[in-house]
Amino acid sequence: MDTAGTPDAVGLELDDIQSGVLHPRPSPYVGTYVLLRIDDRAAGRELMRRLGTVVSADPPTSEPARGAWVTVALTYPGLQALGVPRESLDSFAPEFREGMAARAAELGDVGESSPANWEEPLGSPDVHVALAALSPDAGRLAAVVERARHAHQELPGVEVIWRQDCYQLPTGRTSFGFKDGIGNPAVEGSGIPGSNPRERPIKAGEFLLGYPDETGGLPPMPTPELLGRNGTYIVFRKLHTRVAAYRRYLHERAASREEEALLGAKMVGRWHSGAPLALSPDRDDPELGADPARNNDFDYHDDPRGFRCPAGAHARRANPRDALDHEGSVNVRLHRMIRRGTSYGPELPEGVLDDDGADRGIVFVFVGTHLKRQFEFVKTQWLNGGIFIGTPTEKDPLVGPNDESGVFTIPQRPIRRRLQGLPPFVVVRGGEYCFVPGLRALRWLAELNT
After folding, report:
1. Does 298 lie in the same domain as 258?
2. How far apart are CA 12 and CA 9, in angstroms?
3. How far from each other are the two terminal CA atoms of the chain, in whole angstroms?
4. Basic and acidic residues bias located where (predicted)?
5. Mean pLDDT value across residues 269-287
6. What percent of the chain has pLDDT over 90?
7. Contact in structure between 398 and 426 (CB atoms under 8 Å)
């Protein structure tokens, strides 16, 4: 079992790291995501110069200290549009160079979630720059969005091609009704505590290029060093949630509202309040769910068979913690992720079981230096399948690519229960793999003369 308390042994260059990489989003929050296309190389470089005013993760001067910040990221076609030299382009991770749309089948983004059905222009070569602006309130968001708008206004060679607004729902929960934002790890050297006191801080190299990762080595970094150091990759995905279908599925299989809540908690691994099944397996505990000092303070070593929290529950799949320690060859720390999810669209009123046609869901953002063994591994090996937990035909009951034939097993005595016919509750509307440069790298991009 990992234990907390190991002192940070690495000094991060916080003044060169974009603040949105390390700082969690505020709660409550409002925000917006904007995608840009670069049609003129000189204009794109001027955009990088202007966006270089984005502040760093250094606490004394960070945007989060003032309550708002902007994160800047580029796609592989975006780097090409800026005229980044071929030698540098070839040094980026192959998954990033291919792009999410090209890897959709491997990721399980098929059928309704396939790129052929994605929202334009997501997944297309037109997406070059991604901006994310987040703030605790609309007033400060408007101010930071205006600063970002000034960066690209009056640049005829740069076009806004997509925008998605987001906000924390009045309940403070996701569209499915569960408390969000629990479970991010501590990054060694950041000074920002994690939420699980049992987990040692994760090596900085898992989330920032230029520092040792959990293997003890340096993650592959784009060249030149000025471009790669203090940067990272992000995964951006717009996920439409079928809330009415989810509620109806539970309603049809439960004899009471209490049983509906229990079945939902078994599928997710937490109650609506955020209270984990590992600590409160029989009933919701809103006081526990609201306590950040306790609601993530658990492991699974004392529940190997999943009687408290099923091994196939969403939260346990996404982060098995110590549940796989007995296998020896699985190092969960190599697959940890920083998540920056936000909600979009209107809340479906409580009790409604019929779809109202509104687009609602989650903008999922992952931060990490290893696209393949972090995001792609968790997505393909832990969420899309069940071999690692001994149920190879089962997928994640909430976010897995189910197709009406899905099954979810709930261990219980004297006989287990199996939920049959799981439909897809989440549909991918599109996504991108992006690179988040450090601040010095933004200046390097602005000064390119190719």
Report:
1. yes
2. 10
3. 51
4. 294-303
5. 97
6. 81
7. yes
Three-state secondary structure call for residue 300: coil
Range of the domain at 336: 241-430
- Are 226 and 288 members of one domain? no
Helix or strand or coil: residue 215? Answer: coil
Same domain, 271 and 154: no
Helices 41-51 and 138-152: crossing angle in degrees, nearest 10, is: 140
User: In what helix (H) or strand (E) does residue 377 lie, and over which residues does it extend?
Assistant: helix 377-377
Nearest to 94 by CA among 450, 333, 373, 430: 373
Least trusted range by pLDDT, from 60-64, 121-125, 383-387: 60-64
* pLDDT tens digit sequence for 127-181: 999 999 999 999 988 888 888 888 788 889 999 999 999 999 988 899 999 998 8
Q: What is the mean pLDDT of the chain?
A: 92
- Helix, strand, coil tally for the chain in percent (to 5): 30, 20, 50
Could you count the other beta carbons within 10 Å of the beta carbon of residue 304? 10
Number of domains in the chain: 2
Looking at the fold, whether 58 and 189 belong to one and the same domain comes out as yes
Tokens standing for 257?
A: 């509202």
